[in-house]
Amino acid sequence: MDFRSILLAAPLALCGVATSAPPRALAWWSLAPLEDAAATDPGAGHPVDRFIDRGLAARGLQAMPEAGPLTIVRRMTYDLTGLPPTPGEVRAFERAYRRDAVSSVGRLADRLLASPAFGEKFGQHWLDLARYAESHGYDKDQPRRNAWPYRDYVIRSFNEDKPHARFVQEQVAGDVLFPGDPDGILGLGFLAAGPWDLIGHQEVGEAKIDGRIAKHLDRDEMISAVFNVFQSTTVQCAQCHDHKADPITMGDYYRLHAVFAAVDRADRVYAGLPAARQEERDRLVHRINTLRKEQEALDTEVKRKLAARVSGIDRRLAALKKQHGTGLKPQYGYHSAISRRQEVTKWVQVDLGSRRAVEQVFLMPSFDRFNDIGAGFGFPARYKVEAANDGAFRNGVRLLRDATGADQPNPGTGTIAIDVGGEPVRFLRVTATKLAPRRNDFIFALGELEAIGGQPQENFAAGAKVTALDSIEAPVRWGAANLVDGIYHRVVADPDALVEMRELEEKRAASERKVRPPGTTRRLGAIRKELAGLEGRLGKIPGGRLVYAAATRFRPQGRFTATGGSPRPIHLLDRGDIRAPGERMSPGGPPLWPNAPAEFVTGDSWEEGAARAALARYLTRRDNPLLWRSIANRLWQWTFGHPLAATPNDFGRMGMPPSHPELLDWLAATLRDDPHQSLKSIVRLLVTSRAYRRSGTHHAGNAGIDAGNVHLWRAHRRRLTAEEFRDTVLAVSGALRAGERGGPSFMDFVIEKPQHSPHYEYHLHDPNDPAAHRRSIYRLVVRSQPQPLLTTLDCADPSISIPQRDESTTALQALAQWNNRFVEAAAVRLGKRLAEEGGATPDGQVTLACRLALGRDPDAAERAALAAHLRDHGPASLARVIFNLNAFVYVD
C-alpha cells in the first residue's frame, strides 16, 4: 500500500477540518469573468506585440532585435513539429525571408501547422498533461494493449484543429454526448490514461478495505486530472478538509466522486461493431458481471464458515510444504509455437507405450520460481483432455475433461487432477482451443503431464514419447520432452508427505461439502451453467476495435467487475477516512464562478452518463473563465517555452498569477469567441509575432531589471526535449521512419517475466531494429521502468500530470549522449551517410554533417577542428561529436 493509501486508511490529525467553508465570492484573477475579445483589443498592429511592448516600455526594457532566418526556421520547426528543418527547407526559407520577412514567416507557419507532425508535437504536450502511458504502474506494471488508440486520437484532434470545447467534452463524456461517433469513446482514454492499481482492483476487490481504498484513489486520480488539466484547479486538496486557499469545499470534492461513481478503466469497443450487436454484448457482459458478483458472495460466505473447521488442517499442510519443499528447478516444460490469434487449436500428446490402467491424469502448469513470476504461464484459457487407443485419435476416444465452453481461471501453481477410473489408456492428448495471452501474441505451455496408476508414485508418463502440433525447442528451458521429464513445480518432494497432503486435502474438501448448504450448492451449479452459456454466446460476437478507456461495462477480471452503469454509493469522508462515511453525495462540482452550477442532478435516482455529461457541459461553458485561460496559457507555453502564468495546473491562490494578465485574457477570449475555437489560429498568431522572432541575445541592462526574462525582452533559449533529441538523431542519421504514423506502439525493450510483474529490459533491445525507428511519441511508454536515455534527458514522468517539463544540464546527459547504445548506433549510421553522400574529402563530409545536424555550414574554426577529428578518428566518431555540440542540443 502506498503512502496515499495509508493517509486514507486512518484518520490523521494533520488533515484537520476547516472550521468554515471557504468564501464563495473569493476575488481572484483566474475566477474573474472574461470580457469579450473586442472589448480588450489592444489596437492596431500585431496584438501580441502591442501587449508585450507596452510591458517592456513600462519597465524600461529594450527589446532585442529579430533573430536571423536560420534561427527562426529552426525554432519554429522544432516548436511546431518537434523535428529539425532539412537543409533544403532552411535554404528555401532563407531565400524567401530575404525577399519578404513578414510574409515568409506567415507561410512557414502555415506549412508547419498543416504538417501531420504538428499533431505529433502538440499531442506530446497533451499526453504529458494526460498522464499517458501504456502500462498500469504500481507493483504489477502490466502493459495496456489498447491504450494507443487514445494517443492517436489526440494527435488527430490537434491535426484536425478540433474545437477545444468539443475536445474537452469527448474526454469526459463523449460516449454520452456524441453517441455513434468513435471519437466519443476514444476521448475517454483521457480518464483512464493514468496509473491503475491492478492488485487493489483485480486481486483484492471492493469487499475489503484495501479494495475500497483502491477505488477511492482511482476516482481521485480521474478528478484531479480533469480539473488540473482542463481547469488549472487543484480540487484534490479538498479531500480531507475544505481547500485552504481556494473556494472548494469537501462537499464539492465528493460530489465530483459521485460523478465518476460508476466508472472504471477497461478495454471497450469504439468501432467495428454494429450498434445492435454492441447492445447485445453489453447485456451479456452486464449479466455475467452480476452472476460473478453473486458467485463471489456465496463463495465468501462458505469460506467464512469453513475457516474455523479447517484451521488445523491448513496449519499441517503449511508445515508439510515448509519441511519437505522440493529444490527442483521447475521452469522446464512444453511451449507451443507463438500465435497472433487466440482462437486457434494447438495440442500436445503423450504415448504411454502400451495400454495402461491410469487412475488419474495430473496437469502441472509451467512455473518460474523467481519471485513466483510466471505461475500458470501459458496455461490455456480453454482446453480439453482426451484419451485414445491410437495416436491419430480415431479409435476409442474418451473425453476426460472438457473445459472448452468458457474461459477457465489460471491455475497458478495448482495442479489440475483428472479422474480416469483405471480404464486402459495408451495415448493422452491435451488440446488448447483458446490460447493464453501474452503482450502481443498467444501461446500454449504446460509444465508436466503425469499418468498415475494405482500407486501414488506410479507414473506411466515418465520419459514417454511426446508429440505436438508444434513446439518451441529451446533447450534447456523449453522442449516437448520436458513435458514428461519429472521436473516441474512440486509442493513437496517426500512421497510419504505427498500421501499425507492428499489425505488432508480430501478431509478439507469433505469439510467444505458439509458447510456448503444444498441450496448454495445448487445455486452455484446453476450460476456456473448459466455463465458457461453466456460466455459461449459472448464468444460468438465478433470483437470490434478496442481502446483502454473509462468504462462501465466489461468482462470480469478476477475480482474486478463492472458496475453496469449503476453508481457506487459515495459519501463525504470525515478527514478523508474511507472508514468514516458521512453524508451521501449526489453529482455536482464547485461553483467557482458566478452562475456556475453546484449540483448536476436532483433526487436520489440518477444516471451515470447524465452526470458525466453535466460535468462536461460545466467544464466547457462559455462563462467558465478557467477553461479558456487554462488552454490559452498552455498554447503560449508550448510556443514561447514558458507560460504566462507560471503554474499551468494551478490558477489558484497557491499558484502564480500571470505576468501579462491582459494578454492572457485577450487570448482566452479570442479563442472562446472564435466560432471554430481554433487552436491553430492562436498558435499562428503567436509564432508570427515579433516577440516570438526575437533573438536570444543577452543585454546587461535588461538583465539587471528582469533577469528571468519574464517580460520577454529576448527569446528563451531551450534544449531539445528528450523526444526531440531522439527523433533528431534518427532524422540526421537517415533512419527516422517519420511517415509511419499511428497504430500499435513500438517497444524499445524486451519484456521478461510477463505473467506477473514484467521486467522491461532496455539493454536487451537492438538499437538497429528498424521497427523502433519511428517518432518517439509512438514508443510504448512504461511507468515503473522508464527509458534510461530519455529519462536522463528530462522526459516526463507518466505517472502524474506534467504541465511543464524540467530542463536541466547535467554531466549524466553528456555521458548518455556520448555513450548510450542508441547514440552509438546512430553515429555509425550517420558516419556511413557522410562517407557515401559527403564526398571523398573531410571538408565535404564535415559540411554535410553540419548542414544535416545544425542547418548551416561550419565556420572556419569549426571546419578545421571537425575535419581534424574526422581524419584522426573516422566519420562515426565525428557523428558522435556532432550529436554532443551545444548547437545541436539547443534549439537556438
Report the principal-axis shape. Answer: globular
Number of helical elements: 29
Number of strands: 18
Rg value: 32 Å
Secondary-structure content class: alpha+beta
Terminal Cα span: 46 Å
Q: Residue-averaged pLDDT, rounded?
A: 89
Strand order of the largest sheet: 6-5-8-3-13
**Low-confidence runs of at least 5 consecutive residues:** 1-23
Beta fraction: 5-15%
The domain tally reads 6
Can you walk through the features of this model?
Helices cover 43% and strands 10% of the residues. With 892 residues, it is of the alpha+beta class. The protein has a five-stranded antiparallel beta sheet with strand order 6-5-8-3-13, with no helix packed on it. It has a three-stranded antiparallel beta sheet with strand order 7-4-12, with no helix packed on it. α8 runs antiparallel to α17 and α25 packs across α28 (875-883). It starts with a helix and ends with a helix. Residues 1-23 have low confidence and may be disordered.
